[in-house]
Amino acid sequence: PSRSCDHGAFAPDATAGSGHGPSFSDRITSKGGDLMKLNPDCIRAVMLQIEKEWAIKDDGHGHMVFGSLGLLQLCKSLPDYTKEDIFYTLYNLEQAGYIKAQISWSNGTVYRCVVNYMTYTGHEFLNGIRDPKHWAVIKSGINAVRNYSLDAINAIAGGITSAAISAYIEKAGV
Fold it and tell me: Distances in Å between the alpha carbon of 38 and those of 21, 25, 55, 74, 148?
């Protein structure tokens, strides 16, 4: 199956949930019919891309203007992931408080998904998963414990950081 964001429309199951958006635990399916799962590599790629593309700009009149980053723009920048994977990642990152996003639903269909900004917590999370060597250890850890949640990724990243700080302090003789 295609990994590009260019395939098909994104329309979650309209019968799921209570009208406030579909139930993502078991109802959203990709074009191929697979249940949606968080993709750790997509999480990292999306966070890095948000940091890279999102901006605060001076409008020339003394005001600071927040930029926004839409789902389709992210899809163009991250062609290795499907639109569904990127949307599901954004949805979960927003729910976890790592980003602030506007996600609008109508009749079970997402018609607007825009990232407004990355939160302080999101920056802290990204800093824990940014380094490629640390990321390899994190991925090995989540595979070993078979827990692919944002909490597990964050906990392993935090453990790596704590171990690195302890090693530094011990080496410095503090």
Answer: 18, 11, 26, 17, 7
Q: Is the pLDDT of residue 34 over 70?
A: no
Percent of the chain at pLDDT above 70? 80
Could you give the C-alpha distances from 14 to 10, 17, 22, 109, in angstroms and in order? 11, 8, 7, 7
Q: 130 and 48 in contact (C-beta within 8 Å)? A: yes
pLDDT in tens, 144-164: 999 999 999 999 999 999 999
The pLDDT of residue 100: 96
Residue 146 CA to residue 30 CA, distance in Å, equals 22
Asked if 23 and 17 count as a contact pair (C-beta separation under 8 A), the reply is yes
Instruction: Kindly report the three-state secondary structure assignment for every residue of 65-107.
Output: EECCEEHHHHHHHCCCCCHHHHHHHHHHHHHCCCEEEEEEEEC
The Cα–Cα gap between 47 and 139 comes to 16
Tally the residues of the chain.
Answer: 174
Contact 4, 90 (CB under 8 A): no
Could you tell me the two tokens for 155? 């906990």
